[in-house]
Write a structure and sequence with these properties.
about 350 residues; mainly alpha
Length: about 350
């Protein structure tokens, strides 16, 4: 069945959550027009809708044994994950905030911003702000891509290849890998959406739930966000959403695109901050060393991904595909559009590599 009815609740959930977050973006644009990038919010909203619409198609198969896994995936995304978020928030309200009324007064966006600015000033004084913050940010951004690759390797090479579990369950390692990636990925996106609903609720005077945000989560955000990102969606969710339009691609190409968007971008940023001196263009914060590091890293991770997941492709074709992905990354980096490159890099690098792949 092309549009699987079992997966329909995921589609509805993502459309509803995406529309709610877009309403937040409209409010943020009115209250913080200088800090909030509304273009990013529009593109992210489109990705939310797209992710919901393509989910049933990504889960489509003629294998009847796969229906159980479709049910499990829908359960984890639509019931278990929202239930877990509700439990955490209820625990914070009932056993943390309610028992310690002073916490509600302490946990607010004003105190978070003051603490953030204080820490940033201290890091600037010590000369470690840019590099240290960027390492934390890029490590968090790498998590979605790393998880996807780990789950695919486990499903194909261990669950199927080593354990021969495909004989017991009647589904291939590729199908099991698709189940793991979609379930973990979509559930993770919902978790970050819940975080954004609570974190960005400071825009409402009468419905502000910011005090329900656990301190540990707030501390992690303080170490991994730039100041303008406080008024936007969390980056890991945006990255994961940007992977959904390219999930149809051959896994080696998809993997290469995700690694370019994380490791390639991270190498460009970190090496640029650490070693870059000459900026290009001069009005930009980007450096020549950063461009070179990003290109080399993008080429390297692409070669690795294609070697690991597309072994039948000739070496010369692997090189050409990898160069095309690295060149697209370099082009997006040097143009420096006012659009989050976490959205542009995986989609455009992946599509260009796929075009070269099928030629």
């Amino acid at each position: 069945m092309f549009f699987n009815i079992i997966s329909l609740p995921v589609t509805i959930l993502f459309i509803v959550v995406g529309c709610g977050l877009f309403y937040y973006a409209i409010k943020l644009r009115k209250r913080f027009p200088e800090q909030h990038n509304f273009i990013n919010s529009i593109l992210t909203f489109i990705l939310w809708i797209l992710a919901g619409l393509v989910y049933p198609i990504l889960f489509w198969t003629d294998n009847m044994n796969f229906e159980l896994f479709q049910v499990l995936s829908t359960f984890f995304i639509c019931i278990f994950t929202p239930g877990l978020i509700f439990f955490i928030l209820y625990y914070q309200f009932q056993f943390v905030v309610k028992k310690n009324p002073g916490i509600k007064a302490r946990r607010n966006i004003e105190n978070f911003l003051n603490s953030f600015d204080k820490q940033e000033g201290e890091r600037n004084r010590l000369g470690s702000h840019t590099l240290k913050t960027d390492i934390h940010r890029k490590a968090l951004h790498l998590f979605p891509a790393g998880l996807i690759i780990f789950l695919w390797i486990f499903a194909v090479y261990i669950w199927d290849g080593l354990w021969n579990a495909d004989d017991l369950w009647g589904i291939s390692g590729e199908e099991f890998g698709r189940f793991l990636i979609l379930t973990a990925g979509y559930s993770g996106i919902i978790v970050f959406a819940g975080l954004d609903y609570i974190r960005l609720s400071f825009i409402f005077e009468n419905r502000n739930l910011y005090h329900l945000l656990p301190d540990k989560v707030s501390n992690i955000l303080g170490r991994t966000m730039k100041r303008n990102e406080i008024y936007e969606y969390t980056r890991p969710a945006v990255i994961a959403l940007s992977f959904t339009p390219i999930l149809f691609l051959p896994f080696g190409v998809f993997c290469a695109a995700t690694l370019i968007a994380t490791i390639g971008d991270g190498a460009a940023s970190i090496f640029g901050f650490k070693f870059g001196k000459k900026k290009f263009p001069k009005s930009s914060k980007k450096t020549i060393i950063g461009y070179i590091a990003g290109f080399i890293a993008s080429f390297g991770v692409s070669i690795f991904a294609l070697w690991l997941f597309e072994p039948k492709i000739l070496l010369i074709k692997k090189i050409i595909i990898s160069i095309s992905g690295a060149l697209m990354f370099f082009l997006i980096d040097i143009i420096n559009l006012k659009v989050d490159d976490n959205i542009l890099n995986p989609i455009f690098c992946g599509l260009l590599m796929w075009i070269v792949y099928i030629i």
